[in-house]
Each structure stands twice: as C-alpha cells, then as structure tokens.
Amino acid sequence: MRFRLSSQKIRHHYDDDPATVRSVNHRRLKSVSARLASTIAARNIIGAIQSREVVHRLDIGNSSLGDEGCVQLFNFLDSSAGRRCKNSLTELYLTGNGIGAKGLLAVSKFIKNNDVLRELCLSGNPLSVDADVIAEFTTALNSSRICILQLIHNGTLSDAFVRVLLPSLNAQYLRQLGLSATNITRAVVPTIVEYVTSSRCKLDQLQCNANSLTLPGAREIINAIERENYSLFKVNLDDLHIDEDDGDGEERTLAWQEGWRILNSATQRNLMKKIWVKKQAVALLLYSRALFLRSGMRDLHGGAPDFASVSALNRLSTSVKSNIISAPSMFFRLPEEIQQEIIALLAPDLSHRQRTCVVAFAADFRTLPQLDGPHLEPTNTTHFPAFIQAGLSRQDTTAKVPYEGSWKPPVWWECACPEEKRRNCRTLHRWVREKRDVWLTHVGCDTWEPEFAMRNAEL
C-alpha cells in the first residue's frame, strides 16, 4: 500500500478570500542565490496583487522576500500602480522573510502616516539593532494607526532593540505588542516598567514570554502594572528562564503564584474600567449632542468653539442670537458648578479632562458625520439657517477636526449581507469597532484615568 503525502499548505479561514494574497513557496527558489530569489518572490507577489480587484491582506510569510524583494515590493506599493492596494491594505504579514535593516527601512517608509494598515507582523526576521534604523521605524509607527505589532521569535533583537524602541514609542492606536522570544533579559526591565507606567502606553495586550526576564524582573513589571497601569488587560510573562537568585523550586512556585494573582487582579481591574469608560464616553456623546447642539452652541462664523469649561459654553450661548435651532435649555441657567456636577454624574468613571474632550467634540457641529452625498442634500434648503446650509455643502474637514468614524475602511468592508443577517456580520462588527476605537482615542477615552494622577500632572 502506498501513501501519497499532500504538498498543500494548511488551509486558513481566508484561503478562499479573493482579497487575500498569500505566498507560495517554490522549491526552485532554494536553489538560487538569495538576491535572485528575493527578486523573483517580489515579482510574483506584485503580479498577484495586480491580478486582484482589491487586496486587504498580504500573507507573504516565508516567501524568500529578503531585503531586496522587500524594497522592490514597497516601492511598487508607493507607486501609482500599487496605490490602490496601499489604500485598502489592512493586514500585512512578513513572517520569516530574512528582513534586515534595509528591509525595515522600507517597511518604515510604507507605514509612515498610514491610516489604513491595522496589523503588521515582522516575526522571525533579523531586522536590525542599529539605533538610527530602530528610531526611524519607531517614528513611522507613532504616525500610523497600526493596532497590532508582532515581533516574536526574533532572537537577534535582544536588549538593544527594546532600549531604543520603548522609550520613543508613542503609538496612540497600538493595542497589541508581541515581544516573545526576542532574547531580552532582566537588564531591560526598567525600560519596560517605564513604558507601561507612562501615559504613552495604550496597549491592551503585551507578550514578553519566552525571554530571560527572570522571576524578580517579572515581578517588577507586574508590580508596576498593578500600581500605575490602567490599560493592559492581557499580559504574558510565562516561560521565564531560571536565575540563580530565584530561589529553589518551591520558592519559585509560590512567588510566581503570588505574582500571577496580582497580575490577574490588575488586568481584570483594567478590563472592567476600560469597558466602563468606553460605554460612558459614547453615552456622554449622545447626551452632549442633544444638549449643546440643540442650544445652538456654535459661533457666528461657523468655527469650532474654543473653550476649556462649561462656563465658556454659557458665554458662547449668550452671544448666539439668530443662529439657533431652538431656545437654550434651562440647563444653562444653572450655576457652573451644578452643570459640571450633572455632566460628571452622566459619566462618573471619566476624568474631568475626558469629559471636557467629549463635550467639546459634541458641541462642535463640524464633527457631525458629513452629508456629502448628492442624494442626501435636500433641494428645499432655502428655509434653513445659513450655518446649516454651509454645513450641508461643506467639504471634508477631517484634516482639521476628525468626525466620528473619520477612518473609513476600504470599499470591500461595506456590508453586503441581507438585512436579517447583518446582526451577525463579523465584517460589519469590525468596521463599527474600528470606527469607535478611532473616536475614543481621539477624545482620550480609550483607557481609565485616575483623577488624582491628572491633578498631580497639572501641578
């Protein structure tokens, strides 16, 4: 009896997705030079991209791309021929492609100011430990809207990479960071602690397992999260290498169990507070829209009100005479302290700064979703006030004031499901989640802020 082994790759749930380009490993590439293999791989990938109507996922791991092929691919994506793919690409997987410093610079150029790409995987690549290259990559990452960054199984990175990356990392939309099996040691624990306790850390998940942080180093990170971090709700520090200062087996077990208990308590606390903050921020937006826009809280020139407190809104409302939709609410006749207390009761888990940001956003009519479709503008607008007519004909102002859901996904994300099935549409759910996350980040309500910390920062 003969058995024929299948040469097909393991199938993924998106194998049949026409908007996904996957790499195909050719055995012939193993018998040619690395430079020639990278050129051939890049040409094959570019050809596959050009044959698709739309591409939202590039899963081109282990394709022998290398530095030269990486440069060639991203030069194509930055060209007019590849611009359509760049404007729709949300997931990019470059696992195990032998990407070094030159390729990392090409990736940095691609992700700089990229507001569409949401997931980037560079796992299994040597990358670079050059400080200038890492700094340029970090700067590009900070300007993007990447949500997930995977750098796992990069043993050549070591402490040098983390020492440059984390102190400058200020990516407001980054939610997941994978640093597993990157050969980092206890020497960078202070760097990790400084990052997770800073206001620059917006992460939901952090992976640092399979490294040499040691048990005492892990406890330092855990204690820092428990003390000063309110964003992380999933942290992996398992598979730590044993150090001579860790004690015997029983002591290590007890110490790790205690550390796990503290970490679990802190992450559960952060998760619940994050849920409360997001829900209350959205609810406060609805209340504020109805209250401030109903009362005509806008200036006579159509600009956004510049205020730092509710009292400034009151002064603005008294100056608006003809351009109001209805009479001002009785709310604005209350003393300022009572007004602020009422707003605080509507969103008790938000800090004063967060409530001010949400109210300021809601009170600016330019942040309303733009009705720029020709079929949406009514023909009988002559009886509308002047500012409403100006708002209907206003061009996109997202460069100055991002409105709700200013980041719009590519056309392929438009839900084409029947009405009865839209409730269970994963694509539609992701679209709504992404738009809401962009708005929450814009108004600073993506994590819980302790009031005492904010007051100390102001002092």
Characteristics:
459 residues, mainly alpha, disordered N terminus, disordered C terminus
Describe the structure.
By secondary structure, the chain is mainly alpha-helical. Helix content is about 45%, strand content about 5%. The protein is built from 15 helices and eight strands. An eight-stranded parallel sheet has the order 1-2-3-4-5-6-7-8, with helices on one face. β1, α1 and β2 form a beta-alpha-beta unit. The termini are far apart. The N terminus and C terminus are likely disordered.
Q: What are the SSEs and their pairings?
A:
Layout: E1 20-22, H1 34-50, E2 57-59, H2 66-78, H3 83-86, E3 91-93, H4 101-111, E4 119-121, H5 131-142, E5 148-150, H6 158-168, E6 176-178, H7 189-196, E7 205-207, H8 214-228, E8 234-236, H9 249-293, H10 310-319, H11 336-346, H12 352-363, H13 386-392, H14 426-442, H15 451-458
Parallel strand pairs: 1-2, 2-3, 3-4, 4-5, 5-6, 6-7, 7-8
Helix pairs in contact: 1-2, 2-4, 4-5, 5-6, 6-7, 7-8, 8-9, 9-12
- The proportion of strand residues reads 5-15%
Overall geometric form:
globular
Supply the number of helical segments.
Answer: 15
N-to-C span: 81 Å
The helical percent reads 40-55%
- Strand neighbour order, sheet with most strands: 1-2-3-4-5-6-7-8
Radius of gyration: 26 Å
Order of helices and strands: EHEHHEHEHEHEHEHEHHHHHHH
Instruction: Specify the structural class.
Output: mainly alpha
Low-confidence stretches: 1-11, 295-309, 316-325, 373-413, 453-459
